[in-house]
Amino acid sequence: QVQLVESGGGLVQPGGSLRLSCAASGSIGSVNAMGWYRQAPGKQRELVAAITDGSSTNYADSVKGRFTISRDGAKNTVYLQMNSLKPEDTAVYYCKLDQLIVGLPYSFWGRGTQVTVSS
């Protein structure tokens, strides 16, 4: 099993910044990608940003230019630097890890961390 623990969420004013961290532990094998998703009340969970094992990145259009995803492979940790935050960024942010186990793809999720952008 793989455990993912997110941290760094909180309350921030519009225009502010937060840095989320997600530390993976347990039976970590061949990691394909790690990413951040978010879910606002009454909405579906959506991709925010993802980074592959080869460090290719992908961002939702709504966060391009404001958020940056990065990864420390040695620490099995992924980060999300969020700048110029807007009220519409308010959501629970979840970390996801995709890896191969005996050649089969598996996905693991963290429990989430709340981000609230409000004045």
Short characterization:
This protein is mainly beta.
Q: Span from first to last CA?
A: 40 Å
| Bulk shape | elongated
User: What is the strand tally?
Assistant: 11
Which parts are unreliable, with pLDDT below 50 for 5 consecutive residues or more? Answer: none
Q: Provide the structure class.
A: mainly beta
The largest sheet, given as strand count, sense and whether it forms a barrel, is:
7 strands, mixed
Query: Compute the gyration radius: what is it?
Result: 14 Å
Q: Could you estimate the helical fraction of the residues in percent?
A: under 10%
Average of pLDDT = 94
Topology pattern, helix = H, strand = E: EEEEEEEEEEE
Tell me the strand percentage band.
Answer: over 45%
The number of helical runs is 0
Structural summary, described in words:
By secondary structure, this protein is an all-beta fold. Helices cover 0% and strands 61% of the residues. The protein is built from no helices and 11 strands. It has strands at 2-7, 10-12, 18-26, 30-39, 46-52, 57-59, 67-72, 77-82, 91-101, 104-109, 113-117. Strands 2, 4, 5, 6, 9, 10 and 11 form a 7-stranded mixed beta sheet that branches. A 4-stranded antiparallel beta sheet has the order 1-3-8-7, with no helix packed on it. A hairpin with a 4-residue loop joins strand 7 and strand 8. The radius of gyration is 14 Å and the shape is elongated. The N and C termini lie far apart (40 Å). The model has no long low-confidence stretch (mean pLDDT 94).
